[in-house]
Amino acid sequence: MIATNDWRLLRNLLIRFAPAPRMLRGSAGMVIAGLVIVVLGIAAPSALRAQGNSNRGQQTRVASNPEQQRQQAAVPQRQPFQDLTREEIDYRDKILEYWEQSSAQYKNFRCAFRRHTYDSAVVGYRDPQTQRLASAEIATGEIFFAAPEHGRYQTEQVWTFANPPKEPGAQADYELQKAESAQAKWICDGKVIYEFDYGEKRLYETVIPENMRGPEGLSASPIPFLFGARKDVLLNRYWVRVITPREVQGEYWLEVHPKRAEDARNYSKIEVIIDEKDFLPKAMRMFSPQYDPARGNFAHMMFEFLDRRTNTLAFEGLFGRPQKPISWTRQKRSFLGE
Predict the structure, then answer these.
(1) pLDDT tens sequence across 309-318
(2) Residue 213 belongs to what domain range?
(3) Is residue 132 assigned to a domain?
(4) Residue 338 domain-assigned?
(5) DSSP of 130-179, one letter per residue?
(6) If I label 96, which of 76, 177, 254, 331 is the partner at 20 to 30 A Cα–Cα?
(7) Which residues contact 108 (CB under 8 A, 6 or more apart)?
(8) Count of domains in the chain?
(9) Residue 248 CA to its chain's centroid (Å)
(10) Residue 158, strand partner residues
(11) Tell me, what CATH number does 127's domain have?
């Protein structure tokens, strides 16, 4: 599970990049990117950095001075694959254009998710037949969105690896985490972020500065494309290519690599699988910056987005200011997370 310090890092990143949802109100469907940008595009990479560093026994060094951060972010990353042919570029662009047009039709969205966390430094068991690495942790939960800027993310159950399977090819044993501290929950109404810290029994409230609720939001977000984004925005920040296996039908697989050092500190690459039926992501893999199978580092996360529904959400009560649980403390938090 994610340690307390990792949750603090996750929280600070959430606060830093939370403004993304409001930027999306120009296209109704773009709001779907809102909270997933915050939770999956920020929270998950934070945990991935912690996973990747567990193999090295040290934390990633990030400049604390704003000017140093800007200089680091400006350092371009090298293109990780060969130049695409004109045919490959045209095919990729058609997928991105249709994705953008399709997502613009959605005013609200909800789905269940299943998240698999892989970290060979924590769980190194592999199936002897398939050599597939076992998940160190499995979590399920729900994601909700409503235009123009409302979002909610919450886990429901979390299991951790307990024992290898008794027979090759069988399912490993996982232990359900009954402690509330294993859960995560976030609510965003576009102006305030509410974070439930189950370990400390605190309900944090962070007001997003008004100057960070506008166009700056999307450019600051690590992943401005998860549930649809403008093609030009995506290609400006990422190297993108289509990697759909030949034998796969009804899906489009995209491989995305960050161009900026700031993004590369969060993840080395992302693979998104788009369902042809609704043109929404059905799965996503996020790889740690230290992901390197040749060196035994397999830190990454796999998200499955299940039971996806659009334009059907009755959001009353989902995004309002939450009640403080009994015996908890409600605490205001500044934008910087101090």
Answers:
(1) 988 867 778 8
(2) 4-333
(3) yes
(4) no
(5) T-PBPPSEEEEEEEEEETTTEEEEEEEEEEEEEE--SSTTSPPEEEE--S
(6) 76
(7) 31, 144, 145, 146, 147, 310, 311, 312, 313, 315
(8) 1
(9) 24
(10) 139
(11) 2.50.20.10
